[in-house]
Amino acid sequence: MPKAQMRRWLLLAILVVAFTVLISRMELWEATLRFLFPQESRVLHPRASLLVLVGEHIRLVAISSGLSILCGIPLGIWVTRPGGRNFLPIVTDLTSFGQTFPPVAVLALAVPMLGFGLLPTVFALFLYGLLPIVRNTIAGLSAVPADVLEAAAGMGMGRARRLLRVEIPLAATVILAGVRISVIINIGTAMIGAVIGAGGLGSPIIAGLVQDNLAYIIEGALPAALLAVLADQLLANIERVFAYSAETLT
Amino acid sequence: MIRLEQVTRYYGNTIAVNELSLEVSQGEVCVLIGPSGCGKTTTLRMVNRLIEPTAGHIFINGQDNSQIKPERLRQSIGYAIQSVGLFPHMTVAANIATVPELLHWEKSRIASRIEELLILVGLNPAEYARKYPNQLSGGEAQRVGVARALAADPPILLMDEPFGAVDPLTRERLQSQFARIQQKLKKTTILVTHDLDEAIRLADRIAIMASGKLVQYDTPETILSRPANKFVHDFVGTDRALKRLSRISIQSVIKPSPAIVMDVSIEEAVSVIGSRPSVWVVADDGRFIGWVDMTSLSAATSVREAIVPGDVDEIAITASATLREALSRMLGQGLRNIPVVDEKKHFIGEVTLSDVEAVTAETAETGA
User: What is the CATH T-level fold of the domain A3-249, as seen in this structure?
Assistant: First the structure.
């Protein structure tokens, strides 16, 4: 692994450790928030410790983003194959619709069917996160140069091999950029899960909004922002692993 | 080796290739040429089934290619295209290894094959094997493309304007390199081009196409001297006498010529010149250095001082050159005779303008 890349992973590891330490030191949070908001009777949300809340949040994002990736990438691949090309406009429209549909509205509609808690939240987040992934998968695969594909076919590579050895590696950075956007959006949007009891960092924020307690809001928002930054770094590093250009390789 | 029988291809209602029949014998280079849209690329791509014919059959070694699985067929046919289409995420070595890997060659065999091929196309394996395509110049990429097409040693080679996307100088180098490689490997080749000079230079037979039909299929000599109709006549142009010269080697007109070494006296030099305009000067080991003539000698105190130095690459030609190259060298340098050297730049003899003229006159008489 090149030195510059090693350094980026090292930096990320240090940041993750620092973040974990930060969120596990509740007394530090309490002291700081008490200092900032002396008028509040409580400065920490009583439901759970930050460590638990962050854990719930990560679980929420991991499940929904994981589903978005597992469905989005194959969907994007399928509509760029000869067999699925007819569905390309429909899939683009539907995923765009999923994106424009507010997640809160999805929640409201999903609760009667899926009940409260994790399931409807995951469903709403999954729909919301699908578009960037599908769209970037389509964009990445369509951008593979035609001459490269012709050469691959002309040398006798079969369809599957062409996809796995040529198209996906060449589209990887664009696809992963879509994943990155999707996950970051998801970390922010996952806050709404707290409304229907899915937990996560939304809990102190919603409580803070309801009880007009600024300390609660900061307790939830700050770790969420840091989490988004870390996730962004992690996915950026993964992107770089797949980047093939000679500059990044040497 | 490759036989097309009444091959037709429609695109919607447009006919791209119209009942084309053509046979390319083993080891021959067939160049498909014609104006844009004449169906030459479509024809080429039907051979390895990138395009399926609407009607007709193509036989490879007597076997109908529609009976061979496309992947299998293509793995046995080298394919090089104008835009090269190297895989940008793979090294030069990995690009070349593509077909051998498809054929499950052993790793060690692939490695030695890569080295062999890079040497064949004139790229240093130690330097180039681990480069990525974006680190190559246009000419280098084309050569890697050819190496990749040759990787699994296919008996057949299909090339679609393989030297099209490079500057004229590089193109000429690539062409002569390909001619040399072809002489050694004797691949049955179909090459598509729109460059007539390239066709004349490389082809054993030229197939001239127009609107999907084969107009004339013959050796370059015959096409130049006896165009089948007005279309071919116009296509090969009014300078076809000149073009014919690029099919004739200078071998027959190389004449031995006196040469002196630098250490001879002025008197000796003058006596060797005699009635000639000048005399060539060579080093002790026979390498070409330049020439002296009466004017330069009269102003000098020694032969060494009188030498008009000549850059061997600009003035001299090699024995494998064509009459056309010799003529263009003469016109370009303003010389009535030019020296001929071997690969080590050792002086062999000379070619004179009057001898080239004589051959030109001869071919013009036997020609149309």
Answer: MetI-like fold (1.10.3720)
